[in-house]
Design goal:
- By secondary structure, this protein is α+β, with helices and mostly antiparallel strands.
- Helices cover 57% and strands 9% of the residues.
- The chain is built from six helices and five strands.
- It has a five-stranded antiparallel beta sheet.
- Helix 1 packs antiparallel against helix 2 and helix 2 runs antiparallel to helix 3.
- 32% of the residues are buried.
- The C terminus is likely disordered.
């Protein structure tokens, strides 16, 4: 089991950014402040401001109030209605797909980091798992970025939406501006892009060369055999310096 926890600190931060970015993208999808309309006729829209999101169109009013709200009138924008502009349709479809793809990317990041920090089995495709997670995060960011930029373009060019009479919306706003919903979505997509790039750039550590391992083994063998050689040399020296026989004692023995 290989220890790789020190190689994925950047990917851990990327997972945090991916989760935050995905959460911001979900929040942006539910906000109604994508396009802010300013109107001069305040007979129905008492505040003079209406909000158009990808799911609802709302405004504050004291005369028309939705039963579930106190001072707000809201109508649901259906995907199949003829008046729904293409940028709203793209927002409804692509933002939902971005939610699902981003969730899969986060799940892949969790799986990859789990293998890194809790041990990697033999031949585990950890680098491939990080790469797939990064691609999913990048794909989710692109899906969310398309409707966000498309609606920004509609606001800049002051394009209108022909709402049916039951919406009580004016045929065209006096002016309009980008709402907070698009800003939240842009921040979320930037975080998803950064996290996807970091996931894709993960690399496994380089293994040491076999030659260096062989040299290390030879050094260990030499160190282990040196005590035996020292003992053998000591025995040879003791044998070489052994005292010579005395001739006087030899002649005495012959007598």
């Amino acid at each position: 089991m290989t220890y790789l926890a020190h190689t994925a600190h950047a990917q851990l931060c990327a997972l945090w950014m991916s989760c935050v970015g995905w959460t911001l993208t979900v929040m942006a999808m539910g906000l109604i402040q994508w396009r802010v309309w300013h109107v001069s006729d305040m007979e129905v829209i008492n505040s003079g401001v209406a909000w158009v999101g990808i799911w609802r169109a709302c405004f504050n009013s004291h005369t028309l109030v939705t039963p579930s709200f106190k001072v707000m009138h809201c109508k649901f924008i259906s995907l199949t209605e003829a008046f729904t502009p293409p940028e709203i349709v793209a927002g409804q479809v692509l933002m939902l797909l971005s939610l699902l793809v981003g969730l899969c990317g986060n799940a892949g990041g969790v799986y990859s980091l789990r293998n890194v920090y809790f041990g990697m089995e033999k031949n585990s495709p950890i680098r491939l798992a990080f790469f797939i997670s990064g691609v999913l995060c990048l794909l989710a960011s692109v899906m969310a970025l398309i409707p966000l930029l498309w609606n920004i373009s509609s606001v800049v060019t002051n394009q209108t939406i022909k709402f049916p009479p039951e919406f009580k919306m004016p045929p065209a706003p006096d002016s309009q501006q980008v709402g907070h919903g698009i800003g939240v979505g842009l921040v979320g997509t930037v975080l998803l892009i950064v996290s996807g790039i970091v996931f894709c750039t993960y690399r496994l550590p380089v293994r040491s060369q076999p030659t260096s391992q062989q040299t290390l083994r030879e050094e260990v063998n030499l160190d282990c055999s040196s005590p035996a050689k020292s003992v053998a040399n000591s025995l040879v020296e003791l044998t070489s310096i052994r005292g010579k026989d005395n001739p006087a004692f030899e002649s005495h023995e012959h007598v």
